[in-house]
Amino acid sequence: MILLAHDSVSDLLSFGGGSDLSKEGPDRLLLPLGEFTMPWFLAALILGYVFAIVLSAVIAWHPRSLSASSAERLLGRERVLLLLGLIGATVAEIVMAEPAMALVIFGIGGLIRFRTRLPDEELNFKGILVVIIGLACGMSELALAVFVTIIGWLLIWFIDKSQPFRIRITCDTPELKQHLRDKSDEFVEDIQKTKLRVVNAAFDEKKRLVLYVSVPVSIDEHQLREIIRERIATDLQEVRIRINPL
């Protein structure tokens, strides 16, 4: 469908029945702007991005991904996979418009990913996405640049609305440890009734209750600790709570 959309754009905007698009004079500006008036071209762009993001989400949130052994490693990182799906769809569009750009994108992506000191993995891929948007603008692929910016903004708003945390609850005496184990299911159910989403809950080798939770960005670490304290049974108030962002 996307290939047909590109062909239709070329046919509608070309002069002389199928000749190459003119890039001189006012046509250099008017031809890219003309893409905004072509519903099938825009529909193909949107459909391609929707499928890329949805199918990436199917892989990212695979039910086997968040087992007790891999929750710490994967929680929060699945959001990067959505950005990669968006980047892949954008790269495909740019390369179809100009195949030689494949090497340019590959080089810039490697430079940002491995040579630029950015604080986290997600920011690396946001940087790559921004560079690709800039390339699209420089190639006069304005419709592509605008739509990937809109879809990217909405995707980032969605994936950044929560933050993952690891919560360790430790008891000092064997009696309290056993009591915590007995009350753990009830405790997790109480937490699920709040704004927190418990992704995984399990006891480690030191008999600590370890929770991996997704927390709205409106809740800071201090508020999170208070929520956990309020849900702990009164006879478990002596437990120690350690909270770490992931």
Please give a structural write-up.
With 246 residues, this protein is of the alpha+beta class. It has two domains: 158 residues, no CATH class; 84 residues, 2-Layer Sandwich (Alpha-Beta Plaits). It is 60% helix and 12% strand. The two termini are 40 Å apart.
Task: Outline the fold blueprint.
Blueprint: H1 2-13, H2 27-34, H3 39-60, H4 71-74, H5 78-97, H6 101-115, H7 121-138, H8 142-159, E1 162-170, H9 174-192, E2 197-203, E3 209-216, H10 221-231, E4 240-245
Antiparallel strand pairs: 1-3, 1-4, 2-3
Helix pairs in contact: 1-3, 3-5, 3-8, 5-7, 5-8, 6-7, 7-8
Number of helices: 10
State the major sheet. Answer: 4 strands, antiparallel
The multimeric state of the shown protein is: single chain
Strand numbers in spatial order across the main sheet: 2-3-1-4
Unreliable spans are 1-22
What string, H for helix and E for strand, traces the elements in order? HHHHHHHHEHEEHE
What best-fitting shape do the alpha-carbon axes yield? elongated
Terminal Cα separation, in Å? 40 Å
